[in-house]
């Protein structure tokens, strides 16, 4: 009787997980692809691309796209259909082991770098603010990627398909290595970035409050400096909201990961079949929610950043203009317009060459 109830519970939980996984996957794939592609377009525009924080947002968006199609998609396939290509293909097994964990960790750590950059920018100390540069952001990004592919990517060298009890698994046979890797990933890949982004977020808020308290009213005539200051404020607001939501989404997944790692691997705690089924269900559900971090960035930026919305509006206007031009203008007119533009760029008439000379001599 107990075994029947346990098997029924397992079947029900798997069925629920299957349908929830379908629903969440569609949302993550559609909204994640759309949002991250628009992020990449907007943060490479002239108005934003020279800002260090914008560069971090751009890298986060690229990392999120890779995470959606490499981690989220195959995680859903393995969970819902119980089909894991890495179990039967040694090449995919090693690629999966090399890419999966670094991509998950980098998605959080890039936000940590962005939080650190905004902490520097919001400082009342001018010397600290000067350290927030585009060159430093590029160096930090490259160093972080290299570091995490070194400390997590070595799994791709060791892992390979093994046959255990007539079943093939893409895994590592050494239990000591599995314990070490799980603890490393839980602490360095999940817990530490959540703590650091929360710390830098709080410090940034304190810096902003300190500036507002100590600020002296000054008449600033430089319009450019006003715009830059406003842009930094908007980027800080966008980041703080992203940090808040990321922390709230990630904490439950970090907790279940820590519990599994320390209770099952270190303490060797044994669970009944029903307990294992419940833990498996909760772990996969929280993992799906945690992977939503790779989707939400664009929608947070749209709701909280006025400058971001302006650039988004310009992108849509430019895109619609191209579409309407391509759809409604005849092909001959389009070719004529293109050839005229090309001629105007590459050919200068003698009268146009003489005109600036006459104007300058008259002045």
From TrEMBL:
Q: Which residues form the G-protein coupled receptors family 1 profile domain?
A: 35-301
* Protein name as annotated: G-protein coupled receptors family 1 profile domain-containing protein
Q: Which InterPro entries match?
A: GPCR-Ligand_Int, GPCR_Rhodpsn, GPCR_Rhodpsn_7TM
Mind telling me which residue stretches traverse the membrane in this protein? 16-43, 55-78, 98-120, 140-159, 179-206, 235-259, 279-304
Give the GO molecular function terms: G protein-coupled receptor activity
Please state where this protein is localized: Membrane
Q: Which coarse location class applies to the principal site listed for this UniProt protein?
A: membrane
Gene3D superfamilies noted in UniProt = Rhodopsin 7-helix transmembrane proteins
Q: Which GO terms describe its cellular component?
A: membrane
Q: Which UniProt keywords apply?
A: Membrane, Transmembrane, Transmembrane helix
Q: Which Pfam families match?
A: 7tm_1
């Amino acid at each position: 009787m107990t075994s029947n109830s346990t098997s029924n519970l397992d079947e029900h939980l798997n069925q629920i997980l299957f349908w929830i996984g379908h629903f969440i996957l569609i949302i993550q794939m559609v909204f994640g692809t759309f949002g991250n592609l628009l992020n990449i377009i907007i943060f490479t525009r002239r108005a934003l691309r020279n800002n260090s924080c914008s560069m971090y947002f751009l890298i986060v968006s690229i990392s999120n796209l890779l995470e959606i199609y490499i981690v989220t998609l195959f995680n859903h396939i393995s969970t819902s259909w119980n089909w894991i290509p890495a179990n039967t293909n040694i090449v995919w097994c090693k690629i999966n082991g090399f890419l999966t964990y670094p991509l998950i960790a980098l998605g959080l750590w890039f936000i940590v770098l962005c939080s650190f950059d905004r902490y520097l920018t919001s400082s009342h100390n001018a010397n600290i603010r000067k350290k927030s540069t585009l060159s430093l952001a590029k160096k930090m990004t490259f160093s972080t990627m290299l570091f995490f592919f070194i400390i997590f990517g070595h799994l791709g060298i060791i892992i390979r398909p093994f046959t255990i009890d007539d079943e093939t698994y893409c895994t590592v046979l050494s239990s000591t290595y599995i314990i070490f890797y799980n603890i490393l990933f839980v602490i360095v890949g999940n817990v530490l970035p959540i703590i650091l982004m929360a710390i830098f977020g709080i410090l940034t808020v304190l810096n902003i409050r300190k500036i507002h308290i100590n600020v002296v009213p000054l008449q600033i005539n430089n319009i450019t400096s006003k715009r830059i200051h406003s842009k930094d404020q908007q980027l800080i607001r966008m980041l703080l909201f992203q940090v808040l939501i990321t922390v709230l989404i990630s904490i439950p997944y970090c907790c279940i990961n820590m519990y599994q790692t320390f209770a099952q691997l270190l303490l060797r705690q044994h669970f009944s079949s029903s307990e294992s089924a419940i833990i498996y269900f909760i772990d996969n559900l929280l993992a799906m929610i945690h992977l939503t971090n790779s989707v939400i960035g664009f929608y947070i930026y749209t709701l909280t950043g006025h400058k971001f919305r302006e650039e988004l509006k310009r992108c849509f206007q430019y895109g619609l203009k191209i579409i309407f031009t391509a759809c409604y203008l005849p092909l001959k007119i389009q070719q004529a317009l293109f050839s005229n533009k090309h001629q105007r760029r590459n050919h200068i008439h003698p009268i146009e060459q003489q005109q600036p000379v006459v104007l300058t001599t008259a002045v």
